[in-house]
Amino acid sequence: MKIVVIGSTGHVGGFLVPRLVEAGHEVVAVSRGASEPYRPHAAWSRVTRLLLDREAGDADGTFAGEIAGLGADVVIDMICFTVASARQMVDALQSTGTVLVHCGTVWVHGPSREVPITEEAERTPFGEYGTQKAAVEELLLRESRRPGGVQSIVLHPGHITGPGWPMINAVGNLDLSVWEALAAGREIAMPGLGLETVHHVHADDVAQAFQLAAERHSQVVGEAFHVVSERAITLRGLAEAIARHHGQEARLRFVSWAEFRDQTSDEHGDASWQHASRSHSMSIEKARRLLGYAPRYTSVQAVVEGLEWLEADGQLTLG
Fold first, then answer.
1. The pLDDT value given to residue 20
2. Is residue 192 predicted with pLDDT exceeding 80?
3. Bond prior to 116 in cis (omega within 30° of 0)
4. For a designed S-S bond to 169, which of 70, 125, 145, 178 qualifies (C-beta 3.0 to 4.6 A apart)?
5. How far is 162 from 233, CA to CA, in rounded Å?
6. Residue 73 φ then ψ, to 5°
7. Taking the CA of residue 186 as centre, how many other CA atoms within 13 Å lie in the half-sphere pointing to its CB?
């Protein structure tokens, strides 16, 4: 197939584009700039690179038309964040026969109620990001059900993890010093009882799901899928696993949310609350059954690989 990947040089694209090329597909990799992918791979020499600015193109109404003009069998859109942007893409792809695979987020779900959370569970999204993504999904799946409408598939990754960037830590934010403290056996302050959950997923497992959705699109159009590791993990469970990986015992001091916020920055405090208040634990049964999705990494394995990269890059000292 001819597959266009929008946002191709990002974290997931660094794994997805080589996967598609090695599977024999013709790939057009769309990105805003000419920067190198996060993950170098020989397959990039067999890819058509196209530079398009999504934000500017959405503003002047040209971006979606440029994508439609490529005549792809499948468009994988990793960077659509608003209903207005999605509407432009749907309008441009009308009558082209192109299938649209959209990257959503597990944040279309609000706080956990019954777990694991299925795709059909009642939703109470909050925050601009989650509510916009939920509205985009509603638009795309409604369009898929309309006779003659653009056929779409929506994938909802969890906390994307792996080499190339920081990942959500054991208190639910991106503070790198938390990892260093756990590796060194130093105490960390953990809000609540540490029983809130986070659900990581390795970037290559996300790429696997997008490849499967593209290749099996005729069987799964009009559907949405969670894309996460096999199981979620509690914050204290993550802390204990990472400390143990470095030969330490996790030293956790459980504090109130007010005390935790007093000890950290507003940015980290807000991020921790955003993750803990949702406490997502997602089901992948639907993706396993209909897509054949089989994540290779557990949450801890994905985090460990990411930490090794951060240390090698000089951003962490874990020795």
1. 98
2. yes
3. yes
4. 178
5. 16
6. -75, -40
7. 10
CB–CB of 90/115 below 8 Å? no
Q: Strand 2-6 vs strand 74-77: parallel, antiparallel, or unpaired?
A: parallel
Q: How confident is the model at residue 41 (pLDDT cuts 50, 70, 90)?
A: confident
18 and 44 Cβ atoms separated by less than 8 Å? yes
Please give the backbone phi and psi of residue 166, each rounded to the nearest 5 degrees, phi first: -65, 155
Q: What is the dihedral of CA 201, 295, 136, 118, to 10 degrees?
A: -100
**Burial environment of residue 191 by CB neighbours within 10 A (0 to 12, 13 to 18, 19 or more):** buried
Q: What is the pLDDT of residues 127-138, one digit of tens each?
A: 999 999 999 999
The residue-averaged pLDDT of 187-191 equals: 98
Tell me, what amino acid is at 81? F
First-to-last C-alpha distance (Å) of the chain: 46
How many other CB atoms are there within 10 angstroms of residue 90's CB atom? Answer: 20
- C-beta of residue 283 within 8 angstroms of C-beta of residue 118: yes
Least confident window among 29-38, 102-111, 186-195, 243-252: 29-38
Residue 5 to residue 288: CA distance in whole angstroms: 23
Across the range 299-312, mean pLDDT stands at 97
Instruction: Quote the pTM value.
Output: 0.96
What's the CA angle centered on 222, arms 204 and 229, to 5 degrees?
A: 25
